[in-house]
Amino acid sequence: MTPDQTAPEVENDQPQVANLSQVDAETVQAELVRMHQSSAQVIEAEEVELHQSAALEATAQQITAHESALVLVEAHEVRMQNSGAGAIRAQTVQLNGYAGAVVADKAELGNTYAGLVAGREVRGERIETLVLLARHVDGDVKTVVDTRGAVLAGLVGGLFAGLMFLLTRALFGKKS
Questions:
Q1: How far apart are the C-alpha atoms of 86 and 99, rounded to whole Å?
Q2: Which end of the chain has fewer CB atoms at under 10 Å, N or C?
Q3: What does the pLDDT profile of the chain (176 residues) look like in tens digits?
């Protein structure tokens, strides 16, 4: 190559925008993915917008969902309205709906039902959860096990298991 020649540009195989309407797809990769009444197994994008859609796995910088269902979500920012997710892992989560597990630095939950919520800062209007692990909680939260309860349950469970082990060993252990 002479100094005046430049190397050919490598084209990106990933489309910039993928608009799906009433489509079932296995894998969707683009900078921006918009789905309306569609489903996908895997979505990989910078930004994802779902409306009345479903996805098994979604990975993106930003995910916005309205009346949609997702199983595994990993993103920097997640906004879900009247939607549900199996598991969400993100820096910031705004959720109004249902989730199996939410792990986030900052979670804003309004009228949400969740199995596990873990975060540095949790805010919400009406949150019902089984387990809540958070440094700072602000809002109306109903939980079965909070951070203090989880530590206490772990200590009591460990103490009980240790006592049962010692008792079993004393009663049924080898005698010399």
A1: 5
A2: C
A3: 444 444 444 345 667 999 999 999 999 999 999 999 999 999 999 999 999 999 999 999 999 999 999 999 999 999 999 999 999 999 999 999 999 999 999 999 988 999 999 999 999 888 888 888 889 989 888 877 666 777 777 888 888 888 888 888 877 876 55
DSSP, res 176: -
The conformation of residue 168, written as its DSSP 8-state character, comes to: H
Contacts (Cβ under 8 Å, ≥6 apart) of 123: 106, 107, 108, 109, 137, 138, 139
Would you list the domain boundaries of the chain?
17-171
Quote the pTM value: 0.75
Between CA 56 and CA 58 the distance in angstroms is: 7
82: left (phi over 0), alpha (psi -120 to 50) or beta: left
> Which of 1, 73, 2, 66 minimizes the C-alpha distance to 34?
66
Q: Which amino acid is at 88?
A: I
